[in-house]
Amino acid sequence: MPVLWLSDIDKNDIPIVGGKAANLGELLRAEIPVPDGFVVDARTFRDFIERTGIKDKIYGLLRDLNAEDTEKLDKVSKEIRKIIENTKIPEDIEKEIREAYRKLCEQEGEMVYVAVRSSATAEDLPSASFAGQQETYLNVRGEDEVVDKVRKCWSSLFTPRAIYYRIQQGFKHEDVSIAVVVQKMVNSEKSGVMFTSHPVTGEKLCVIEAVFGLGEAIVSGMVTPDTYVYDRIKKKLVEVKIGEKKYMITRQNGKTVKVELDEKKAKEQVLNDKEIEELVTLGEIIEDHYGKPQDIEWAIEKGKVYIVQSRPVTTIRGEREEGKELKAGEILVRGLGASPGIGIGRVKIVLKPEDMYKVEEGDVLVTVMTTPDMVPAMKKAAAIVTDEGGLTCHAAIVSRELGVPAVVGTKNATKVLKDGMLVTVDGDKGIIYAGAVEEVKKEEVEVVKTVATAPVITATEVKVNLSIPEAAEKVAHLADGVGLFRIEHMVLSLEKHPMKYIRDGEVDKYVEELYKGMKKVVEAFYPKPVWIRTLDAPTDEFRAMEGGENEPIEPNPMLGFRGIRRDLVEEEHFRAEMRAIKRLVDEGFTNIGIMLPLVISPEEVRRAKQIAIEEGIPLDKVEFGVMVETPAAALIIEDIIKEGIDFISLGTNDLTQYTLAVDRNNENVAHLYDETHPAVMKLIERTIKICKKHGVKTSICGQAGSYPHVVEKLVEMGIDSVSANPDALQLIREVIARVEKKLILEKIRSLKD
Question: Cα separation of 388 and 412, whole Å?
Fold first, then answer.
């Protein structure tokens, strides 16, 4: 029987139907929405080449082939494919294929369009992925076309990329056969690819890329898709990047065509929240079924989600290696870091197939988008750079599997970079630098000598409060990030008042000082988050600086001209802060948060974000948040959230003194200062509850974050992170671990009851 129906097969049938078909059968059995279809099994291909007498010719041409000789490889591939495509299929085999297609049409009540896809018998295995090596034919209709495309799929077992990959992976050509899946075609309005877990680190981050029309536009790298990152632990969408989708592939008059989109449609978000959540749910079911992270192709037609393929992710390598950074260099191009690592080499621009032969060992391959035929050249490259594509395009997937650093979606690399130019490619940050940029190895720092125990892992993050940039490296290995970076301490150590720099026409010099200090912290902690609080010093602290003579004299500076209220009056200063942060973002740092102090109204947040945008801060790459240190902010937190914030941090020092009307620096009332006062704790609890409801991250950075008895209450409330002083980090982590274990135990006991 040459033909098997998808509903009749499972993983036990891989030897005869291939990994792709077996996976589809498995999904159907698990009641996943998979379009129906059938498989021309792998035994049929072997029968075909033996009965027609072409077997010896094929394998004779492959004997002793040097896969690194790309010209010879290409020549042999073309000759074998011509032999197969010019050989007539035996009558009994052809008859059964035709009958199966007719039956599929009868089930649907019309002559259906089908996708004809190869399914190699060593394909989509847990240890190897043959994805993209064989051909796929879309919108095939009619018996004659189906028979012809089945034969073309057979011949695609011998594409240059497929031959090369088998040799590199140690597969014997004779041991790999090919089945062909003929499946009802989903004429998708939206489609894409989904990694159920992060394809490099394996974190529980579901990465979805989406385009309008058929998904071939993603894999081919024709467009830069939308990217959605969903945190499966926190159950929320944590990142959205809208790609510029200039084209879509769709069916028109029975043909697969490329359609140009107008500017508005090209920049429109593809998926809504409901569709994202439905995809994540299906992805989790499929990952649970296989017990491994999955690379899934999906499509949406008339509002219904279909899964059209699933295979294991084979590129997970674990967390990014710590301790390596690049020295500052001239940035030539930026894109999306798609495969981690650093690659240095001479640029080779590849704009047409024959150009790939000029790529030599250690070169940097630069192209609009890689194709499967470029794999031999990609293998030689020190790094790969493309104009188009996203995290799931061909260049990204293959680069990760080969272990080659890659940056995709640069838009203009083939125009900016020139043949022979020496460049450094940072596949983590998505940056291409001029010349050979040296790698800086961070020196090991002395661990704070506290309790000599193994590191304690907690679900609640333990961050650190920092004031002095030079201290960052000493504590970076102990904390999960910086919950409060107070830049005022850095500013107050400068030679003159920040506004004097501006009035003297030296704003660039001031920005440089801010940038240097900020970079020490952001770089030391990368990729851990660093929340930079904008300037928040009271007027009396500025008065002693050169140029501070005109600072207003205030009866109570803590209630005066400070925080965001000052920055929105002295707007030039706030813009300087934003310019310093933008320089860091331009260098590829993606771990930055901007935190506004002393907020009392939504309008302050709205205006601050507007200025940040005007200064070029990309809010899709930088988190934006506020300090909740006034009762006003705590009581109108929902209105502030509506302005679009990513996080809040509870500043308990000010929140306590403002709530209790107690000046914390006044010894006459110091005994009344109490962070655990019921009024303060109710404001904190209310804020955390509302923020959790709206998916806003919560943290604490006030002195109370260093007190174990307060931390216990915060963890019970569900706070996301606690930011403590450096000397309290180890103690606070242990307190958190103890409280978390207690909560888990109580939950288990309640379930037993």
Answer: 9
Token digits for 741? 């274990």
The yes-or-no verdict on residue 254 having pLDDT over 80 is: no
Active site residues: 394, 701
- Which tens digit of pLDDT belongs to each residue from 8-59? 998 888 888 887 888 899 898 888 999 999 999 999 999 999 999 999 999 9
Could you list the beta-strand ranges (E) of 629-704: 647-650, 697-700
- Name the token pair of 685: 């609890």
Backbone φ and ψ for 327, nearest 5 degrees, come out as -65, 160
Distances in whole angstroms, Cα of residue 656 to Cα of each of 394, 629, 689: 55, 8, 19
Distance (Å, whole) CA 364 – CA 370: 13
CA angle 274, 279, 283 (to 5 degrees): 150
User: Rounded distance, CA 402 to CA 648, Å?
Assistant: 41
pLDDT greater than 70 at residue 324? no
What is the predicted pLDDT for the residue at 678?
A: 93
Distance CA 558, CA 553 (A): 12
Q: What are the φ/ψ torsions at residue 2 (nearest 5 degrees)?
A: -65, -25
Burial class of 212 by CB neighbour count within 10 A (0 to 12, 13 to 18, 19+): buried
Q: DSSP character for 203?
A: -
How does pLDDT run across 399-446, given as a tens digit for each residue? 887 889 999 989 899 999 999 999 999 998 899 999 988 765 443 333
Rounded-to-integer distance, Cα 223 and Cα 393, Å: 9
Are 312 and 125 in contact by the 8 Å Cβ rule? The answer is: yes
Rounded CA separation 701/650 (Å)? 6
Contacts of 445 (CB under 8 A, 6+ apart): 473, 474, 476, 477
Q: How confident is the model at residue 392 (pLDDT cuts 50, 70, 90)?
A: confident
Q: Which residues pair with 463 in a beta bridge?
A: 723
Find out whether 112 and 184 touch, Cβ atoms under 8 Å.
yes
Give me the pLDDT at residue 71, please: 85
Quote the percentage of the chain above a pLDDT of 70: 92
Q: What's the order of all strands across the beta sheet hosting 114-120? A: 3-5, 37-40, 178-184, 114-120, 136-140
Could you read off the pLDDT of 210-251 as tens digits, one per residue? Answer: 999 988 777 666 788 889 999 998 888 988 888 878 889 888
For residue range 495-520, what is the model confidence (pLDDT) as tens digits? Answer: 899 999 999 999 999 999 999 999 99
Nearest of 58, 57, 313 to residue 178 by alpha carbon: 58
Which CA distances in Å does 643 have to 603, 689, 696?
Answer: 8, 18, 12
Is residue 388 within 8 Å of residue 222, measured between CB atoms? yes
E-state strands within 597-676:
623-628, 647-650
Helix (H, G, I), strand (E, B) or coil at 431: strand
Give the 3-state secondary structure of residue 734.
helix
Following DSSP, what letter does each residue of 581-605 receive, concatenated?
A: HHHHHHTT---EEEEE-S---HHHH
Question: Quick one: tokens of 710?
Answer: 């307060």
Kindly list the distances between the CA atom of residue 364 and the CA atoms of 426, 432, 595, in Å, as whole numbers in the listed order: 12, 10, 39
Task: For residue range 294-304, list pLDDT tens digits in order.
Answer: 989 999 999 99
Number of residues assigned to the chain: 753
Residue 621's φ and ψ, nearest 5 degrees, are -115, -10
Among 681, 730, 684, 677, smallest CA distance to 706 is for 730
SS3 call for 389: coil
The pLDDT tens digits for 139-184 are 899 999 999 999 999 999 998 878 887 787 677 888 788 899 999 9
Round to whole Å and give the CA distance between 592 and 357.
42
Cis peptide upstream of residue 527 (ω within 30 degrees of 0): yes
Distance (Å, whole) CA 616 – CA 584: 12
Integer Cα distance of 58 and 46 in angstroms: 12
